Amino acid sequence: MPNKKTNEARIVPTRFTQIARQKPSISREDAIEAGQSAVTELEPEYLEWVDGLLRELWSAVDKAGQDDTFPNPYGEEAYGLSNQIRNLGATFDYEAVTHVADSFCELIHRLTEAKRNDPHAMRTHLNALRLVSTPTFKREGEGELASLMNALGQLVDHYPEPTGNIG
Amino acid sequence: MKLAEQHINLAQVNFLVADENEGGRRVMQSILQGFGAVFIHHTGSLQATRDRLMFGGIDVLICDFFLGNGRGPDFVKELRRTSNHPARYIPVLITCGHLTARDVGRCRDSGANLVLTKPVSVQALYERLAAIAHRPRPFVDHEVYAGPCRRFRAAGAPNQIERRMKNKTEAGMETRGRAVRVPNPMITSTGIQ
Predict the structure, then answer these.
(1) Could you tell me the CATH number of the domain that includes residue A67?
(2) Which domain holds residue A50?
(3) A34 located within any domain
């Protein structure tokens, strides 16, 4: 039921604010350390997730490239998958994955706004993603990242930045 | 950060993590468990989230922007505007990835307490939960907006994300001939974080 329109501001006590302040509590340092440790334990699963997402992304990009019209459903799927890959990377210290996937998202966003298709630019991003998502690149590839991002950026900048886009 | 905010107790808090991505749910669940949370529920669709919240007993909602094909903020807005909803006033965190300016505006106007940009940082999540626990804001019930008061910049927002983003820019590599694009700067500058 839609809320009856009122015009007020008041402090509403919630159960969370009451119990989260209770003692015994966990200190900030301990909580962050334990949280970080929990993330580290997930890394093997992370690699499996990314591998699966990359397979799906490969298929979506392939199909999106075959369709002259853009945006198309496969392009939207590719955007969603790329966003998922982007959102996990840096949490597991795969910063390069987040940067490349973010560039991929931006490319698809700009292609969508420009109503243009560019299979070459999408495949290049996909190949870059496959490269940076390996543990080997995480260990040894940091020096290559700047030039890689520069090259991908040129592909993205080929299309105008939509007005007001800050994402 | 104030001394009191150095501690939170999440052992009795019921969290609902709403994210269509299994990896996103698992990451959030693991971090919350590290923080001492025990009761962590999760849903993978908009409808399941709606049903679970209506059932009651949830203290905090962590809702992904892309839930229901990008309708996460709309869902939060609906929650805040439904007067008899059992979860109307619970703290809500929206998590988001790549966004456009319009999307940022939707987050800001949804009625969420705070926004957390992905990839999630353990530290940033802690700061947000601590801020909600120790610095509750008035709930505004207005015809154009329902949710926590958005004017809290002067009081000092949990600034870890600002610091983190600054570090990222300073430490980040030069790409495309300029610093790494920092996602969603408006989120920080408008104070909704």
Answers:
(1) 1.20.120.160
(2) 44-157
(3) no
pLDDT above 80 (res B175): no
Instruction: Enter the ipTM.
Output: 0.85
Are B60 and B16 in contact, with CB atoms under 8 Å apart? Answer: yes
Cβ–Cβ contact A20 with B under 8 A: yes
Query: Chain A residues with CB inside 8 Å of B136's CB?
Result: 11, 13-14, 17
pLDDT digits (tens, 9 = 90+) for B96-155: 998 877 888 898 899 999 999 999 999 999 999 999 999 999 999 988 999 999 876 544
What's the pTM value of the predicted model, to 2 decimals?
0.83
With CA atoms as reference, the chain B residue closest to A156 would be B176
Into how many domains does chain A fold?
Answer: 1
Q: Express each pLDDT in A61-72 by its tens digit.
A: 999 988 888 889
Instruction: Classify burial at B32, counting beta carbons within 10 Å of its beta carbon; exposed 0-12, middle 13-18, buried 19 or more.
Output: buried
Q: Predicted confidence band at A59 (pLDDT cuts at 50, 70, 90)?
A: very high
In chain A the first and final C-alpha atoms are separated, in Å, by: 34
CA gap B167, B162 in Å, rounded: 8
